[in-house]
Design brief:
Elements lengths: L2 H8 L5 E4 L6 E6 L2 E7 L6 E5 L2 H10 L3 E3 L8 E5 L6 H18 L2 H4 L4
Antiparallel strand pairs: 1-2, 2-3, 3-4, 4-6, 5-6
Length: about 120
């Protein structure tokens, strides 16, 4: 999988925006202004920071060598996923979806229900 495949998958979720708030190589995906993924465009293979529960993050890091503590992020809540040829695309998709859902749940209920 490459940068574009990851980008296209992240954009499939409702109310997602993308942009470059930090620099020209870190593509940030947000839902209602809150970050759920950061894709490093200048790295090969592609690397993406994703949010998950602290417990699950530890499990993933212990099980997969291509999942590391989040680069430039709170390492308790974020992982950096290296999308190399031996990484599981199904697991990466699951992790992107989980990250999106965790952030979506923090969006105020009024906004989630379309009131704002």
């Amino acid at each position: 999988m490459n940068h574009e495949v990851i980008r296209e998958f992240a954009l499939r979720f409702p109310d997602v925006t993308e942009g470059f708030p930090f620099d020209e190589t870190s593509l940030v995906f947000k839902v209602h202004g809150k970050i759920f993924a950061i894709l490093s465009l200048n790295r090969q293979p592609a690397r993406v920071n994703l949010k998950n529960s602290p417990e699950r993050n530890l499990e993933l890091r212990e099980e997969y060598e291509w999942i590391l503590p989040g680069y430039h992020a709170n390492k308790q809540h974020w992982n950096t996923v290296i999308a190399s040829e031996y990484a599981s695309w199904n697991l990466i998709q699951e992790m992107i979806e989980t990250s999106y859902k965790l952030v979506w749940q923090k969006v105020p209920k009024k906004v989630r229900e379309g009131g704002v």
